[in-house]
Design goal:
25% strand, alpha+beta, 121 residues
């Protein structure tokens, strides 16, 4: 009986540790960087992370797959405790055709200088 109780306590402890780390705050820049993502800080917009295989350095010459976005004042691109805010799609300014960005209540995508951006929360 003691073995059964002890085994159940160990199993519950391990389950609690696993659930705690998964339920935390979603993907994190520090973890993404360990898997080939490029994370960078954008003043007033927070930390952004580009997926592997997406060359990151402006200018944006083609539509960029969704960047992960962390609305934070923290400049630490290796952080593991930021709040995941959503995704961001970038499209080149050249040839951009006006379209609404309803996620940000904008009539047009935000011109961030290097591209047009729309954040999705």
């Amino acid at each position: 009986m003691r073995r059964l109780v002890l085994s159940m306590l160990v199993a519950l402890s391990l389950l609690g540790l696993t659930a705690g780390s998964v339920a935390a705050k979603g993907p994190q820049p520090g973890d993404l960087g360990d898997h080939g993502w490029t994370c960078f800080f954008v003043p007033t917009l927070g930390v952004h992370c580009a997926p592997p295989g997406v060359p990151w350095a402006p200018p944006v010459e083609r539509a960029t797959p969704l960047l992960y976005w962390f609305d934070s004042d923290a400049t630490d691109v290796d952080a593991t405790d930021l709040d995941f805010s959503g995704t961001e799609l970038l499209v080149p300014t050249a040839g951009f055709q006006s379209r609404p960005c309803p996620q940000e209540d904008l009539d047009d995508w935000m011109d961030i200088g290097i591209a047009r951006a729309c954040h999705h929360r």
